[in-house]
Give the backbone structure.
Amino acid sequence: MKIVHYINQFYAGYGGEEKADLKPEKRDGAVGPGMALSAAIGGIGTVVGTVVCGDSYFNENIDAVAPEVLEMISSFAPDIVVVGPAFNAGRYGMACGAVAKAVDEKLGIPVVGGLYEENPGLDIYKRHGYFVSTGNSAATMRKAIPDMAAIVKKIIAGEEITEGFYEKGLRKNYFAKTRGSKRAVEMLLKKIAGDDFVTEYPMPVFDRVAPGPTIKDMTTARIALVSSGGPVPKGNPDRIESSSASKYGKYSLTGISDFTPDNGETAHGGYDPVYANQDLDRVLPVDVLKEMVANGEIGSLHDYWYSTVGNGTSVANSKKFATAIAQELLGDNVSCVILTST
Amino acid sequence: MVKEIERHGITVVHMCTVVPISLTVGANRILPTVAIPYPLGDPSLAPAEEKELRRKLVKKALDALCTDVEGQTVF
């Protein structure tokens, strides 16, 4: 059986964020984690080729890159495609998911991947492959590879795969022993009696928030700046972590009308910091906002900006930060926020 | 974060490059930006042109805040 592996620039050995703009390319045989994968699969399958793409390049050009990567993958005529594992790396997870979708829809062959449960790529793309649950960082590679290899081996053996991956959310037909009306009444009786029962159709949980009120007049509105791109004063005084942030920072805008290499930088470790460190206005548009306030296009600007690093930061922490930030903003009568993400 | 701030009744416009992530996290007003390492700039432009690009994007973001939306909207 022929396997093709999709990985990013880091796992292909090119480098980190400074190489995240790498264009797609293909190589014969296994590269990086593909070697361990190949070993774990054993003699029954071979990694015949590896396709590599930079995470930023993929995500910024997703519509054009996905078909290009698919073309490279199909040139090896694989039976199975493996993506990642991407752990909790957001852009890498999105790329792995988009590759899984393209392979699933266009080639119709099985895809196996590995993602952390909070990776944004999981919810969007889980129906397109067997994604095993991994830890949130590459430190858990040793567990992820055997888990992924186990699914690959089952596919090769033609076995039914019933566990070891995130539910795809697809419906499967089967013949039940008793008819629906009887099962429904039995479930209802259990519910009335206060007994445990298992629904046959779990309702999806949507945690949506309705859009905030439309701003009627920007020339009287009070606006604030928040960012998950890690913009901080030069020197990162609160030492916000470059990934998996445990805190956010609150920084005064007084006296800053324009960012320069001397007064601002990014603490974010998930993208190439060169451009943000040269001019932080590229992440937090303070220069134009101050001008817009001065010439009356905007009523006023809240005196502080709030910043954290979104890279690998848990949903629970993000909620906690945002709730605290919202309280501060409400206390200062802020009606609207520009939130920038990288 | 977008969602949690908006939950408190403050209107948020999310300026970001990877729109699918923004849709997943539940942003309602989404404004696509330039690139991941420089959402509100473009180092290949002259400084004045780059600032003009940033001004246009911010203006669009302000317009989005002033626009009625029913649900998630990409501007």
Notes: Chain B has a mean pLDDT of 95.
